[in-house]
Description:
By secondary structure, this protein is an alpha/beta fold. The chain has one domain: 5'-nuclease (Rossmann fold). The chain is built from 10 helices and 5 strands; from the N terminus they run βααβααβααβαβααα. The chain has helices at 8-16, 21-26, 34-41, 48-57, 69-72, 78-89, 100-108, 116-125, 133-141, 148-157; strands spanning 3-6, 29-33, 61-62, 94-96, 112-114. The protein is globular, with a radius of gyration of 15 Å.
Amino acid sequence: MSVWVVNASPLILLGKIARLSLLAELSESVVIPHEVALEIDAGPAADPARLWLAAHGRNLVTIPESFDLRVVAWDLGKGETAVICQALSKPGSVCILDDRAARDCARLFGARVKGTLGVLMLAKQAGLIPAVRPEIEALLNSGAMLHEGVVREALQLAGES
């Protein structure tokens, strides 16, 4: 298990399907950069991720010690930049990111990366959920925009194609 540094999108998506608990169940610890917390707090008042952050997640919020100028130069969002910089400053950390450019940046600098669907696949492997397909369907029904090819690949890897 390792430290997971989580961006807003996975928090929002897992919140929509009531699966935020998977983060703590699958990792050694969860870290939410301050910039990500600000993004979540700026969302709708009834957003499940915002409510969870207010009730349970505040103790997970940290301020990154420094920002790697190589990552800043990628001109990603503030949250994505903070996630990658925080993970790079703590060897062994995993970036939990959905944005393709952010994932590419993180990998370029040697960070490990997982996305929301990767979290769901790990949850299935760990026996925390029985199947990935219903969770993906719940995400799609909640308005999540998931690329068809990514969904197909996730289901294939989960043995549910």
